[in-house]
Design goal:
By secondary structure, chain A is an alpha/beta fold. In chain A, 40% of the residues lie in helices and 14% in strands. By secondary structure, chain B is mainly alpha-helical. In chain B, helix 3 packs across helix 4. Classes of the chains: A alpha/beta, B mainly alpha.
């Protein structure tokens, strides 16, 4: 998995993922040899941190729940300060099939992309493809992001992603905090990042519940749309 | 009691309350300035109320009371917006601190492991 001296960090955000996180870490360890695994325990109230540690992951525990965006950004900050070459983001809920990590790392290694998004919808590969209402919402974001940036990503809510050094530096400085995945694509595109999408298979979560399951899809769509539009008019942070 | 006197007493009381809160370190000067300006303005118009009537008439308010309510509404909306900005700033700072604490705690544990 790990070639020559390149350093790869798997960022695994987890909030109350006891029952899933151990298996996720173990799976990454089995298929992605030489990849350091950093679990960001986002203020879990259960034994997520202990389970991740037992499975062999490094665990950074946030003192309280900050949300998925801040948790992932903590991973980028760690990757940046420890000079990792590549970061791969894998959800702690066991939905992402770790055997695809190698596949989504390839365009980064070949320097064909700065960011790779694993998509459920690029190919009819089977696996879990989410509910109808969610797919309507996802489709809406596909068109919104395409209209605003010209980038066509078929699965903008996918959190199964790989990033090179340029993106690690970018996202360690700024990463959207609430429902960040669609907005992060816009952020990357505005920083002239080359975004590539590859087909992956995702599974239905085995324990616990998704953080957006209880939000109505419409509310999610409105909130993320506003976040993306506000990002478009936001003043860019000064460099240096 | 004359309404002008009541208005003056209330305005002076708010002004003095803000000063007392600053004195007791319950309010910092940075956040007291706005309230001092507003209560100072209220004292000014309570004394020179004819000027308030002229302002209301000049701006097209039929009743001076409408002008007062409108002004108060604007003050509270602005104050609420500024408080939201402050809240967001504090929230962001909290997030940054929580991230830094978590990373430092992790680094510390790793260092301790290496030393042992």
């Amino acid at each position: 998995m790990n070639t020559s001296s390149e350093r790869i960090l798997a960022i695994v955000p987890a909030f109350n993922e006891c029952g899933n996180i151990g298996r996720t870490v173990q799976e990454i360890r089995n298929v992605a040899k030489g990849v350091d695994i950093l679990v960001i325990d986002d203020g879990s109230l259960d034994a997520t941190a202990q389970e991740a540690l037992l499975a062999g992951g490094m665990v950074v525990s946030l003192p309280f729940n900050l949300g998925i965006g801040a948790a992932v950004q903590t991973g980028f900050q760690y990757a940046q300060s420890h000079q990792y070459d590549i970061a791969v983001q894998v959800d702690g809920d066991g939905q992402h099939d770790a055997s695809y990590i190698d596949k989504i790392l390839r365009p980064i290694r070949c320097q064909e992309a700065d960011m790779v998004v694993g998509s459920r919808f690029l190919e009819k590969t089977g696996g879990f493809r989410t509910s109808f209402s969610r797919r309507v919402g996802i489709n809406f974001f596909v068109h919104l992001i395409n209209a605003l940036t010209g980038v066509k990503i078929s699965d903008p809510t996918s959190g199964f992603r790989a990033y090179n050094k340029k993106m690690i530096a970018l996202f360690s400085e700024y990463y959207p905090h609430d429902f960040p995945e669609p907005e992060a694509i816009v952020v990357a595109q505005q920083a002239a990042g080359r975004i590539v999408e590859l087909p992956v298979v995702m599974r239905k979560r085995e324990a616990g519940s998704s953080s957006i399951r209880y939000f109505k899809t419409v509310y999610y769509m409105i909130k993320v749309t506003m976040a993306i539009l506000l990002h478009m008019i936001r003043q860019k942070p000064r460099q240096g | 009691m004359n309404i002008h006197v009541v208005a003056l007493v209330v305005s002076v009381a708010i002004f003095l309350l803000v000063i007392e809160l600053v004195r007791r370190h319950r309010l910092t000067f940075k956040y007291a300035v706005g309230w001092l300006l507003v209560s100072g303005g209220a004292i000014f118009f309570a004394i020179f109320y004819r000027l308030l009537f002229s302002c209301a008439a000049w701006l097209g308010f039929e009743l001076p009371s409408n002008f007062i309510f409108f002004t108060l509404f604007c003050v509270f909306v602005t104050s609420s917006l500024l408080l939201t900005v402050f809240l967001c700033q504090q929230n962001s700072r909290n997030d940054v601190m929580a991230q830094k604490i978590a990373l430092l705690e992790f680094e510390l544990k790793e260092l301790k492991k290496k030393l042992n």
